[in-house]
């Protein structure tokens, strides 16, 4: 007698891929999105929450859908990093918001920058951050002020729409697109067309998770396409035609992976459609059941580029894309456009370093005024937390360099000032374990004193938690925030060390050594020790990342 097959009315779980019919059961994030599209929260903010205040906000909107409008609750002041994983979200959050203004392609006018600066000064306690994704972030924002902030941003063509959330985030572009003679092609128009057509569209307002895009013809690969979800990288095919190489599946956080080349050549007039097709693949086939596997990199790891290309072409484009060549390696290791660069029209772009991205609204306004005085009112943000003023005549360059230096904005910074980045950290972020912004500033200042003649580029990225907003895995020296035991046995703020991360040729993530950690107080001593060893043992022209790859472990501890 055979045993009858068990049947069940329970829905299949699978990986939560819509294209395979797996829409139930839902994790809390997927349920939140199904209950109400994130884009719908905008009207509730305008009509209800800006009038009721913080206490009147629905929890599903507060900790979920508001991200679709670039709003996160910020961390309550005074909560130590050791409590981050212990407290519930409502115990960690303040009644103020971090707000992110998206700046696609990093392109700003002086009028727009003055608006950004004024918002910070009037509504955000004069605090602002230029991020490593070309955005500007505010803190201390009250929900009552959001409608007026939106009105001002929209008056200069900016918004907070989909600056956060499971949506197409800001689209990165070279800050010198259309400016430099040696670029492969100018991606400004394809970014603008894609943003106009799809940002804020319900078609892509419910993706499995965030979706990070870059489109650039920069010879330095300044948008770091190796670690974006989808990237269009400038290249010339065998016929000499300029177009794009398509890369998919990059990302960092707790499971870092490099993007993979799909192997196709995309003409400029195809970019928006190909981008939409890639985004549709992610929407329909991306893993939704487990939040920690909901990025495209996990699907790419399982599928590989051949299957991705086949699905992209057969199911979404309806045509085959031609094979294409890989782009040449990045022309320069430093991708920040700091310094003075000659524009193809004979004027100059002047790029300068902030203090690990932290700035004030007042100073943003000053920069806007300088851009009018010395240039033509065009400013750009970079993916390295830097700014660039365009269109400066030769005879005005040094005067602008001096004017910026009066505000500690350095066009010719030290290697440490130039190469140090930091995420938001414990000061405002609910996920952070350690303070980062001020510590990173103190760290580069100390290293400038201890190693004043250090003569090679060095990236030092300070991150407050494992999520890698400051890209610690791809830095020469990456610090990942954690709680560490000091010599007395007390748990204090500290960092796990990652060494020798590198993008470009022979890209690699930083090495870890038996979970090697340092306390916050030890970071300057540690950096000095390791960098002095590098200076003593390096070969001619050797980079720090290459040195780390061959170094004995004891040299790096």
Automatic annotation (TrEMBL):
Family: Belongs to the nitrite and sulfite reductase 4Fe-4S domain family.
A Pfam short name: NIR_SIR_ferr
Ranges for domain Nitrite/sulphite reductase 4Fe-4S: 165-319, 417-556
Region entry Disordered, spans: 1-37
SUPFAM superfamilies in the record: Nitrite and sulphite reductase 4Fe-4S domain-like, Nitrite/Sulfite reductase N-terminal domain-like
EC number: 1.8.7.1
Polar residues bias: start-end ranges: 1-15
Protein name: assimilatory sulfite reductase (ferredoxin)
Keywords: 4Fe-4S, Heme, Iron, Iron-sulfur, Metal-binding, Oxidoreductase, Thioether bond
Boundaries of every Nitrite/Sulfite reductase ferredoxin-like domain copy: 94-155, 342-406
Requisite cofactors: [4Fe-4S] cluster
Organism whose genome encodes this protein: Blastococcus xanthinilyticus
Reaction(s) catalysed (UniProt annotation): hydrogen sulfide + 6 oxidized [2Fe-2S]-[ferredoxin] + 3 H2O = sulfite + 6 reduced [2Fe-2S]-[ferredoxin] + 7 H(+)
């Amino acid at each position: 007698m055979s045993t009858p097959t068990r049947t069940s009315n329970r829905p299949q779980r699978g990986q939560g891929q819509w294209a395979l019919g797996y829409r139930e059961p839902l994790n809390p994030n997927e349920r939140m999105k199904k209950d109400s599209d994130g884009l719908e929260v905008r009207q509730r903010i305008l009509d209800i929450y800006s009038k009721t205040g913080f206490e009147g906000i629905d929890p599903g909107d507060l900790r979920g859908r508001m991200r679709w409008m670039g709003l996160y609750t910020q961390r309550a002041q005074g909560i130590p990093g050791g409590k981050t994983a212990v407290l519930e979200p409502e115990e960690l959050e303040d009644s103020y918001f971090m707000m992110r203004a998206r700046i696609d392609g990093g392109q700003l006018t002086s009028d727009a920058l003055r608006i950004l600066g004024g918002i910070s000064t009037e509504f955000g306690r004069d605090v602002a951050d230029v991020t490593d994704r070309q955005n500007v972030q505010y803190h201390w924002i009250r929900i009552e002020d959001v409608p007026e902030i939106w009105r001002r941003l929209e008056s200069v063509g900016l918004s907070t729409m989909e600056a956060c959330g499971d949506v197409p985030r800001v689209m990165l572009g070279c800050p010198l697109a259309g400016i430099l003679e040696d670029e492969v092609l100018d991606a400004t128009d394809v970014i603008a067309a894609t943003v106009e057509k799809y940002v804020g569209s319900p078609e892509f307002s419910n993706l499995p998770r965030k979706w990070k895009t870059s489109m650039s013809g920069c010879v330095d690969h300044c948008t770091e396409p190796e670690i974006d979800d989808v990237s269009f990288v400038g290249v010339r095919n065998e016929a000499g035609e300029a177009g794009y190489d398509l890369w998919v599946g990059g990302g960092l956080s707790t499971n870092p992976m490099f993007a993979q080349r799909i192997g196709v050549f995309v003409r400029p007039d195809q970019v928006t459609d190909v981008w939409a097709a890639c985004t549709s693949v992610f929407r329909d086939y991306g893993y939704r059941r487990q939040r920690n596997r909901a990025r495209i990199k996990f699907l790419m790891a399982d599928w590989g580029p051949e299957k991705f290309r086949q699905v992209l072409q057969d199911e979404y484009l309806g045509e085959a894309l031609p094979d294409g060549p890989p782009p040449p390696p990045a022309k320069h290791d430093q991708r920040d456009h700091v310094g003075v660069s000659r524009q193809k029209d004979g004027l100059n772009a002047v790029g300068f370093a902030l203090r690990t991205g932290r700035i004030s609204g007042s100073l943003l306004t000053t920069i806007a005024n300088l851009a009018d005085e010395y240039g033509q009112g065009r400013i750009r943000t970079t993916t390295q937390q830097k700014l660039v003023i365009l269109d400066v005549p030769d005879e005005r360059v040094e005067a602008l360099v001096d004017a910026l230096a009066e505000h500690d904005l350095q066009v010719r910074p030290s290697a440490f000032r130039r190469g140090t980045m930091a995420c938001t950290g414990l000061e405002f972020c609910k996920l952070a374990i350690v303070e980062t912004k001020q510590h990173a500033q103190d760290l580069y200042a100390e290293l400038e004193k201890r190693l004043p003649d250090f003569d090679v580029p060095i990236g030092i990225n300070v991150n407050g938690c494992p999520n890698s907003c400051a890209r610690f895995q791809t830095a020469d020296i990456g610090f990942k925030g954690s709680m560490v035991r000091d010599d007395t046995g007390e748990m204090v703020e500290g960092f796990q060390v990652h060494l020798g991360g590198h993008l470009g040729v022979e890209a690699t993530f930083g090495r870890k050594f038996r979970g090697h950690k340092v306390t916050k107080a030890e970071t300057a001593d540690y950096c000095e020790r390791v960098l002095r060893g590098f200076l003593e043992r390096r070969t001619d022209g050797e980079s720090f990342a290459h040195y780390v790859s061959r170094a004995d472990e004891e040299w790096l501890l």
